[in-house]
Specification:
This protein is mainly beta and 309 residues long. The chain has 1 helix and 24 strands. The structure holds zinc ion (2 copies).
Length: 309
């Protein structure tokens, strides 16, 4: 499995309920519509990969396994609530009794999300949509005891710390001045190892994050030629500018998560020229620019190349 939360995958045999159906993090939360026909998100999306095994979060009975409008769906009825999983290719037949943690199928592609694949998990009582996480969050704390409760708290604190880091202002950054500041923003996560806000594990952060309001102008950090502009799941709208040889290194700057860019591959850009607007596309938890610098193809700390102030 490519992504993992530290503690949510699987459960000890003694645990009767409250297993996460998939090990990945929640990438889209529960946002029920105000009216039944309104727009909203009637469940949560959990990131995973195609073919990953999905397990029942709680004891129940399989009450549906098949296609709905061309999409594979599995429904598990637990007491008076029903969990719906899609797109999941069932490995169990209707009528099968399942325990928490029993495999019910495998994840398929098709639910729009910022990962390779996402499990859409809905929970209903009658016609009312409930937050599916209520099933696991309560169980984690209640059934797994102090350690799990501590882990939930630690995870929440780490999230808060990451959010605070993104929001807190820091002093001017010092550097060589080879590159101009690509945007006006507060410096959040720096270059180096950090606790990832979405994957909840320590990962290398190959650039710096500058946060500000959505739509804040992004500018080219130096004269150059646009070598890439496109969308990908992790970086969202991504721009790469080649700056040629600078201080003996072939220099490139990379801009991620924008709302969009106004330049195209092959365009010549000048230092400080408007190239796009700050956004939160791809794996991002709020509007910010992820800015990377590559020297001779290797990521380097951007702060060493930026102007101070
Ligand atoms: Zn969804
Ligand atoms: Zn970043």
């Amino acid at each position: 499995m490519a992504v993992a939360c530290a503690f949510v995958a699987g459960a000890s045999p003694a645990v009767a309920a409250g297993v996460w159906p998939l090990g990945g993090p929640v990438v889209t939360g529960f946002d029920p519509p105000d009216v039944r026909w309104g727009a909203g998100h009637r469940g949560v999306d959990v990131a995973g990969s195609v073919g990953e095994v999905v397990v029942s979060p709680s004891d129940g009975v399989v009450t549906f396994a098949g296609d709905v409008a061309g999409r594979p769906v599995v429904v598990i009825t637990h007491d008076d609530r029903r969990s719906t999983f899609e797109p999941v290719v069932a490995s169990v037949a209707v009528g099968t009794a399942v325990r928490a943690g029993d495999p019910i199928g495998t994840l398929a592609a098709g639910h729009a999300c910022p990962a390779e694949a996402c499990l859409h998990w809905g929970l209903r009582r009658g016609e009312t949509y409930l937050d599916p996480l209520s099933l696991v969050a309560a169980a984690e704390v209640r059934l797994l005891g102090e350690d799990a409760a501590g882990a939930v708290t630690r995870r929440a604190r780490a999230r808060e710390a990451e959010a605070a880091a993104l929001a807190s202002a820091v002093g001017p950054v010092a550097g060589s001045g080879v590159l101009a500041q690509p945007t006006a923003g507060r410096l959040g996560s720096r270059f180096g190892m950090r606790f990832h806000p979405i994957f909840h594990e320590w990962r290398m952060h190959n650039g710096v994050d500058l946060s500000n309001s959505c739509g804040t102008p992004l500018v080219a950090a130096a004269d150059g030629v646009v070598s890439h502009m496109g969308f990908d799941a992790s970086g969202g709208w991504r721009l790469v500018i080649d700056h040629g040889g600078v201080n003996g290194a072939a220099l490139q700057t990379v801009y991620l998560h924008a709302q969009g860019y106004r330049v195209r591959p092959g365009d010549r850009v000048g230092r400080g020229q408007l190239v796009g607007s700050m956004g939160s596309t791809g794996w991002s938890t709020g509007c910010h620019l992820h800015f990377s610098v590559k020297a001779n193809g290797r990521h380097v700390d951007p702060l060493g190349w930026l102007a101070g102030g």
